[in-house]
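chain below, 50 aa
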Amino acid sequence: MFKCQFRKCDKEATTKGIVFVMDKGDKDKPVEVYACDKHKKVTSFFESID
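prediction:
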């Protein structure tokens, strides 16, 4: 299994999704991440539909 990729979290990931980060030129860039049950509830996390 994967580990949660949110900062300072070492829990097991339960969900795959996307967060948007600032890229060069002030554009938002989608980045695929894995999240635990706590961090999948963050408003900036969008769950993948695979």
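The radius of gyration is 11 Å. The mean pLDDT is 93.
thats it, cya
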